[in-house]
Each structure stands twice: as structure tokens, then as C-alpha cells.
Amino acid sequence: MTSPDLNAGCFGAFFAKRRSTANGTSVQSFSRVTANSQTRTIAYENAANPKSAGEKKSISNFSPFCDYSSGKQKDWWLLEQEPLPSYSLKADDTNELTRNDIGNLIDHTLDKYDAQLRVLSLRIHDHPETMFEENFAHDLLTNFMAKQGFKVTKHYLGLQTAWRAEYSQGSGGRVIGINSEMDALKGLGHACGHNLIAISGVGVAIALKAALQARREVSAKIVLLGTPAEESGGGKVILLERGGYEGMDACMMCHPTVGIAHSTSIGSTNAMQAISVQYFGHSAHAGNAPWEGTNALDAAFLAYSSISMLRQQMKPDHRLHGIVEGKDWLPNVIPDYSKMRWIARAPTSEEVEVLVKRVVDCLRAAAIATGCEIDVKLDVAYFDLHQNSALAQYYTDIVGNRYGLLTLQDGSSASTDFGNVSYAFPALHPAFAIPTVPNGGNHTPGFAKASRTREAHNATMTVVRGLSLTGYRVLTDDEFFCKVKATFEHPKGA
Ligand SMILES: [Zn+2]
Ligand SMILES: [Zn+2]
């Protein structure tokens, strides 16, 4: 076996050794040094090793030196931990909403719809659809909202899978916006829990409608938008540009993540810029006349290496990650085409801009070195998330006092197109913890499983209650709304 003393760095825990098989071909096996220095061997498929074909190759342990995942994993809420406590009104809760029974009405409404919302969530989870192809979710959710008495617009503003569901009471009054995301990740399914986000929007809209109907003297409007392509594609940015959010006084949504049990977070997220680059070369016979070729794959590899080196000179809270794509590649033909997709992230859009310039320099340098033609495109930009402090404070109070949730200020290095919405209107986007497995954070198979559990559903519904009460206050409390507006226009206080 290999010695654990070799390559003891973070990713140096991979060792390989080659052994000969009876027929003279070789099988590669990899051993990984785990947290307690035990080794595990993973047999990789090989024609000479038919026994291993189809075997499940699981990597179950990661070095603790690499544990830089969302928050500290030791604090994560893990499946098989204690169940959610039942919530109850605290005796000292003096909030006006609970005094006038609207809070109880919202709770009662959501209890009544809980089973139906769970079915919607599981059906969306069972039909994962990627960006701009959320047709099943679009039809399921629009039909459901129409049955609840909302005025529904399908295929909203020219986007096949965007939709709008609206309920108005009286004339004039304030407009509260809510967003339901629906998209999944290619190959991973609902590994970001957008099935839970989809039903959270539906839940808030239904609860707010019931609350408004109990206060017929209030004029107000509820607008729920079904927003496609959050993982990439920027569905909300397109809807914003096309006027889909026009008239909203505030907008809200929520997102599941990992974290401490029964916690929610109102931190920011990173700004992000997606970049695509294509290299165009010239094909040639790789054995006969490679000097006649211009190698587009080499350009991609050079660019990848340059950007990997750039990471060393990057700030710790900046992120660069990308992939190489190609078509019709063969080992005996010099590839004449390659494509790369990169994402640059940083806490602010200004920092992203500087980072993107450095990335584009790396991309161009690779084109010069290989003699390829280059085409660089900047795709949709996501802004950092601005949580409106008045909305966040009220949400924190209500979920803490009424439902026993702990609110944290932790931000995320991920990004959301809701960041752009938060620049346009007072906005609230709490994250909330759902229980998962170790190394099962967002964008992993573990999180896909976690997002269909009963515990995840219950955690979502608690946040839905908090958002509903926050939305109700926006619609009905003039003084509170003035504070919301003031903190949007002067975020640092004035
Ligand atoms: Zn997500
Ligand atoms: Zn995601």
C-alpha cells in the first residue's frame, strides 16, 4: 500500500499505484487517506477488470483539512438528528399581528394547505428540469394558483417557463412581490432545493390572500412570479428588464441551505459574472502532420492553467471556477474548437469587474500562444444581495419570537439573480437550514435527497410563516413601510 507520509497537503491525500493483472494489462487503484488515517481503495472500471464494472464507487470521507464547506460542518443540521420542535406562541409575545389573530389565521391557512404543498414539492422534485425548461413545474404551479383564485399569466413576458399569479383587493394600496424558483441542476436533480423555493412562494401567496380576505378594508396586491433559470441564465434579470417586477413595493423569497438546526440567515451573497469563451483553431492529422494544426484544446488547457495560477493572487473571498467543453474530439485529430464557461464571484460587482478583466487577459493570452481565434462573451451578471434591514429585522423578530428560529447574519459565497431584484426594490431573501448528510451541501446528491425530506418541508413552512407575516406588515402598516423605504433609499441610515 502507499505510504500516508507522502504528499500530506490538502489534496495530496490521493495516491495511485499500478498493479499488473494476469493478462498483462493494468488496473489503476486509488487510495484516499481519511480523517482517521485509514485508507479506502476505489477500484475504477477498466476493460481488464470486468468485475469492477457497474460497481458503485463511493468516496465517503474527506480530509478535515479540506473542510471549508458552507459554515462549519460540525454545526450542520444532519438528518437523523432530533425532529423539529412544534412551535408555539410565547407568552410574552406582544406583537400586534398575533394580538389581532392574523398570525393565527396565517398559521391555520398554511396548516390546511401543508399536504397539498408537500405534494407539489415532491412532484417538482421528481421531475427535475434545468434552466428555461421548467415546463412541468410551470404547468403544475400555474394550474394550482388558478384554482386558488389568483389571476394567472402563463409564459410571462415571452419566457416559456416564467409565470405570474396575482390577487388584488380594493383599489390602489401596496404591492408585495414573491418569487418561486423551479430549476434543477443538470445531472444532479434538485440539489439546490428549488422545489422547496417553488412551494415557499405559493405558500406565502396563499397565506397573504387569506389574511387580506380577513381585512376587507385593506387595498393591496399580491404578485407571485415563477422565475426560471436561477442556477444560470438569470431569469429574474430578464423579467426585471422586461418590466415583470414593475409596481412592487417590496419583494421576498427564501432559499434552503446547510447550517445549524432551526436556523435562518439574512446575510448577503456574492456578485457574479458568467463568461463564455470559444477558441477556433485548425484541425490536422495528429500523427501525420500535427504542425499543420492550430490546437483549440491546447488554448483551453493554457487558459485553465493561467486562471489556476491567478487564483493564488486572488483575495480569499473571490471565486473563479469553470469547465471545458468541446465537440467531435478525437485523439488522432488536432481539435479545431473548444469552449470554456467560467464564473467569477466576489463580494461586490466592482470587485467582480476587476477580477473578470484579469480572467479575460488569461483567456486572450492562451489564444495568442496557440494562434487560435478567440471569442469572449460576458453573460448575465448577478449582483450581490442587499437585504433590506427593516424587513430583515421584522422577519428576525417574528421567526424568533413566534417560531423559535435562530437568525444568523452569515453570508454566502454563492450568488443569486435575486441580488439584482434587491437593487431595484426593498427585498428580503432569507436562507434557512435543512438537515442533510456530511459533505451533502447545496449542489451535491446528498442535498438533492435532503430537499425532499419531511424535515426540509417543515423547515420551509416555518420560514413561509415568517415571510407571510412580514409581507402582511408591508401591506398593512404604513409606518413600517416608511421605515422599509427609508432603509432602502439610505441603507447606511440617514
Ligand atoms: Zn439555489
Ligand atoms: Zn444552486
Structural overview:
The chain has helices spanning 96-99, 102-126, 135-147, 194-213, 235-241, 296-312, 349-370, 389-401, 418-424, 445-450, 454-476, 478-489, and strands spanning 14-20, 26-33, 39-43, 151-153, 163-169, 174-181, 220-227, 250-252, 255-257, 263-265, 271-280, 319-325, 337-346, 373-382, 406-408, 427-428, 431-433. It has 494 residues and is α/β, with parallel strands linked by helices. The protein has 3 domains: 14-66, no CATH class; 73-267 and 386-489, Aminopeptidase; 271-382, Alpha-Beta Plaits. The strands form 4 sheets. A 6-stranded mixed beta sheet has the order 4-5-7-6-8-16, with helices on both faces. A 4-stranded mixed beta sheet has the order 9-17-10-15. It has a 4-stranded antiparallel beta sheet with strand order 12-13-11-14. A hairpin with a 5-residue loop joins strand 1 (14-20) and strand 2 (26-33). The protein starts with 13 loop residues before the first strand and ends in a 5-residue tail after the last helix. One zinc ion binds at residues 192, 231, 442-443. Residues 279-367 form the Peptidase M20 dimerisation domain. GO terms for molecular function: dipeptidase activity. InterPro entries: Amidohydrolase (IPR017439), Bact_exopeptidase_dim_dom (IPR036264), Peptidase_M20 (IPR002933), Peptidase_M20/M20A_hydrolases (IPR052030), Peptidase_M20_dimer (IPR011650).
Strand and helix layout:
Blueprint: E1 14-20, E2 26-33, E3 39-43, H1 96-99, H2 102-126, H3 135-147, E4 151-153, E5 163-169, E6 174-181, H4 194-213, E7 220-227, H5 235-241, E8 250-252, E9 255-257, E10 263-265, E11 271-280, H6 296-312, E12 319-325, E13 337-346, H7 349-370, E14 373-382, H8 389-401, E15 406-408, H9 418-424, E16 427-428, E17 431-433, H10 445-450, H11 454-476, H12 478-489
Parallel strand pairs: 6-7, 6-8, 8-16, 9-17, 10-15
Antiparallel strand pairs: 1-2, 2-3, 4-5, 5-7, 10-17, 11-13, 11-14, 12-13
Helix pairs in contact: 2-4, 2-11, 4-11, 6-7, 8-11, 11-12
Bound molecules: zinc ion (2 copies).
Residues 192, 231, 442-443 line the site of one zinc ion.
